[in-house]
Specification:
- The structure is a single chain.
- Helix content is about 40%, strand content about 15%.
- The chain is built from 22 helices and 16 strands.
- The chain has a domain of about 240 residues: Rossmann fold (3-Layer(aba) Sandwich), CATH 3.40.50.1100.
- It is of the alpha/beta class.
Amino acid sequence: MITFYQSTRDKSNKKTASQAILQGLAEDGGLFVPVDFPKVDLDFEKLKNASYQEIAELVLKAFFDDFSADEIKSMVTKAYGEKFDSPEIAPPKRLGNHYILELFHGETIAFKDMALSILPHLMTQAAKKNGVTNEIVILTATSGDTGKAAMAGFADVPQTKIIVFYPKGGVSHIQEQQMLTQKGANVHVVGIDGNFDQAQTAVKEMFNNKVLHDQLLKNNKQFSSANSMNIGRLIPQVAYYIYAYAQLVKTGQITDGEKINFSVPTGNFGNILAAYYAKKLGLPVHQLICASNKNNVLTDFFKTGLYDKNREFYVTSSPSMDILVSSNLERLIFDLTDENDDETLALLTALSAEGHYQISKKMMSKLQGFIADWASEEEISQEINETFENENYVLDPHTAVANYVYHQIQPKEKTVVVSTASPYKFPKVILEGLQKSGTDLSEKIDDFAAVKSLEKLSGIPLPKAVLGLEKAEILHHTVVPVQEMQKEVEKYLGLK
């Protein structure tokens, strides 16, 4: 039986997995979700000895069953190999009374590598499967990490182009340097004078622009997406939650069937949604802890049921979470409405038109499996300092948010804090957090001097992703106002 995917805004709009991956976003602006949730046998007596690759295969076979088992095996082998600097791919580490799941061992040292290493393979295979001869244009907005990870994945992949928009001044210097030095004849990076939400909104508008869509087709091109709105990006993330649990069973930290918590630093909601999907598959999860920074729209939502983006936007030390419109929440909303597409559409239309929506009491009652809190800039800095002092472990600012919130909630169950980026992506922020540990930091220090200080202080070897980055040639120089994003796309693609 093939698993079909339906739009959250129109259930009659159904696609196979490969079609949904190719398309990225539904024509009606909705997101694709499985019509029937697949069944997976999560036998941890067997899975505890499975490799990351084997668990990834298990998950992908269940969700993307219009690909053959051999196709999935081949794609997984290509995706999760030498590009990762840890044989476990996603090693869990004990930290005091809880665990840290390190998702930053890939090529671009961020958790996005976990999915974006395989998405290009899924996409090109899906194109073959559906007889697509058009050039696939990956159009994406990034709050810092998706951009580089997607470009690294799609660089020089035949039959594709990738255009990435990022908020100029709204990402770390290392993140920006990683993007601006990205090689590849099919790669285009554009800074915008605005924030991530504005970039994401403009990208969604382009996806839903029929005139632009027709113009692309005339030029033998079509859009797809690399961020977690694309089901092909979201589903591979389910694997690392199952793998983390299996590893804890293997090392005797938990018993098979014991319920645990995951604390996830959350902006766009995709990462924690993958944990929710793992729970729906049968992973023994007690609670999902949704951790936000000062842009705490999700904290308020889980506490009150009101989603209100009409608030001040803050640029923080954890930029990948500086988001006020959490696109992936739409998939959870659809779930909470018992898959009522009309109700979902009405709520999301209210968000666009008025900037807020309120869910019903009945929907609220289904949120028992979530708990939410947030951390201020000061609390993040303090968390980085205390963790280093007490555990000799260096947290990046995003993981520090999730670690702080875990400590605030103090759950009884064993908890895994999801670590989404290497500390080397945010060296200045971390050194500022470690100042009390005797670090000398002047205001003038740049990120690369901070990298050297951090290496000396922490003893963590410099990852390949940072080596040579300082002297790498800047290849992308374009910056445009938000309102000219479409014009820039048309220009780059040579649309007539």
